[in-house]
Amino acid sequence: MNVSIRLLQANELAIADHVFRLAFGTFVGLPEPTEFYGDAAYIEVAMHRPNEPAYNRPDVFALDDWR
Hints:
The chain is mainly alpha-helical. It has a domain at 10-55. The chain contains 2 helices and no strands. The longest helix has 15 residues, at 13-27. The protein is flat, with a radius of gyration of 13 Å.
């Protein structure tokens, strides 16, 4: 199996949001896991931060730095 780790592209935000909600909603035991976090745009907000040094390095593979 080949695994590629890279920064998210803008066209992948919807899929990343779905995976995030499904994973955490399942973890906390929600009857509808994809409704986790309501209508909040957690993944998009993390993706659209200003161009800070940590987000411009090719070796950084994070959705959010938890600030």
